[in-house]
Amino acid sequence: MKLTKHQKLLCDNLNYTFQQKQFLIDALTHSSLNNSIKVDNQRLEFLGDRVLALVISEALLEADASAREGQLAPRLNVLVKKETCAEIALEIGLGASLLIGKSE
Question: 3 and 12 in contact (C-beta within 8 Å)?
Fold first, then answer.
């Protein structure tokens, strides 16, 4: 399957080339899209949220080795909250790359 121009731009913005393009397409396909084969990404979404928190946690620990948990937790919460993720999604052009049904 071929990527759309927006999906190619997203890869450019991420500076990443997907070896398995179908994985990217599956990840960008919303459940509202009326496909004969629906991919349920809710379990992957759950896992992805935890991976994001882990990666951000590691970056925070590296950025401030002397910070205590009480200092790190609020920083983590700000970085992984939906508003921050939405801002980053706008910056990288994620919305235009999504495959969404007309009802959304």
Answer: no
3-state DSSP assignment of residue 42: helix
Q: Is 41 helix (H, G, I), strand (E, B) or coil?
A: coil
Tens of pLDDT, residues 44-77: 889 999 999 999 999 999 999 999 999 999 999 9
Task: Dig out the tokens for 74 from the structure.
Answer: 């609020």
Return the pLDDT at 36. Answer: 56
Q: Which residues share a beta bridge with 24?
A: none
Do residues 103 and 13 lie in contact, with contact meaning Cβ atoms separated by under 8 Å? no
Question: What is the residue-wise DSSP string for 44-69?
Answer: HHHHHHHHHHHHHHHHHHHH-TT--H
**pLDDT tens-digit profile of 11-22?**
999 999 999 998
Question: Which tokens sit at 76?
Answer: 């983590």
